[in-house]
Amino acid sequence: MIHVISAVNRHHYEDVIEQHFRLRHEIFVEERKWEGLRKPDSREIDAYDNEDAIYLLALDESRRVLAGSRLYPTTKPTMMSDVFPHLAAVRGCPVDPLVWEWSRFFVARDRRDGALNLQLMAAAQEFCLDQGIERLCLVMETWWLPRFHDIGFVVTPLGLPALVGDSWTMAATIEVRQESLDIVCNRIGMTHAIQHDGPRIDCIARANLCGLAAQRKIA
Q1: 101 - beta bridge partners?
Q2: CA-to-CA distance for 155 and 46, rounded, in angstroms?
Q3: Residue range 2-218, CATH number
Q4: Which of 78, 84, 85, 99 is the most buried (most CB within 10 A)?
Q5: How far apart are CA 101 and CA 172, in angstroms?
Q6: 97-114 pLDDT, tens digit each
Q7: Whole-prediction pTM
Q8: Helix, strand or coil for residue 113?
Q9: For 131-152, what is each residue's pLDDT tens digit?
C-alpha cells in the first residue's frame, strides 16, 4: 500500500521521511546524475520539501521505502513556476487550490518491475479524488506521455517540449478522474492503493491558506 504522509501525521513517519530523502539522493543524484541536487549529507531535499508537501510512499513490512512521489499546492511557488516556467509558456503554470504539483516520482532500483509505478499512479488519482483535487500538474520527460496514455490518464501539455540536460522534457496537467483510477486499479488487481495512518489533511483548505499567505507576502 501507498502511505499518505503530510504535516498532520508526519510524526508517525519521521524515520521513513529521512530514509526517503536518502533514497531520492541515491536515485536522482548517484544513479541519474542530476548533479545540481547533490548534497554533502546525501539527502535530496529541495525548497518544496516543507510543511505543505504531501508524500505518497510505498513501504514494505519493515518500513523500508520502496517508491514514492510528492504533491505540492500550486497556490505557492512550485518547481514548475520557479524552475521550468518556459515549459508552460503556452497555457501557463497553474495557480489553483484544485491543482497540485506532482513531482519526485521514484522507485527503488530492485523493485522496478512496473507494479510500483502503477501503484503510485493509482495512489495519486485515489488521493486526489478523495480530496477534491481536480488536476495534477507536473514536469516530466516526454517518454512518460505514452505510459500515461496507456493507463487512461488524460494529459494536457502546457507548452512545447524542450531539452533539459540531455532529456526532452515537458510540462503538463493530468485530469483526476474516477475512470482513470479504475483502469489502473484493474491493471494492478487492487481496489484501493492508499493507506492513511493518523489524522487526515484537508488539501483544499491548506492550499487556500497557502494562497492567502502568498497574497499577503506580495502586498
Answers
A1: 72, 137
A2: 26
A3: 3.40.630.30
A4: 78
A5: 10
A6: 999 999 999 999 999 988
A7: 0.95
A8: coil
A9: 999 999 999 999 999 999 999 9
C-alpha dihedral, 147 to 152 to 156 to 161, nearest 10°: 10
d(CA 168, CA 203): 31
Does position 215 have pLDDT exceeding 80, yes or no? no
For the chain, the structural domain boundaries read 2-218
Of the candidates 213, 209, 46, 217, the residue with the CA atom closest to the CA atom of residue 139: 46
E-only strand ranges, 38-191: 54-59, 65-73, 99-107, 135-141, 155-157, 162-164, 167-175
E strands in 60-201: 65-73, 99-107, 135-141, 155-157, 162-164, 167-175, 194-195
- 8 A C-beta contact, residue 140 and residue 172: yes
- Whether residue 173 contacts residue 139, with contact meaning beta carbons closer than 8 Å, is answered with no
157-210 pLDDT, tens digit per residue, is 999 999 998 999 999 999 999 999 999 999 999 999 999 899 999 999 999 999
- Label residues 13-34 b or e (16+ Cβ within 10 Å = b): beebbebbbebbbbbbbeeeee
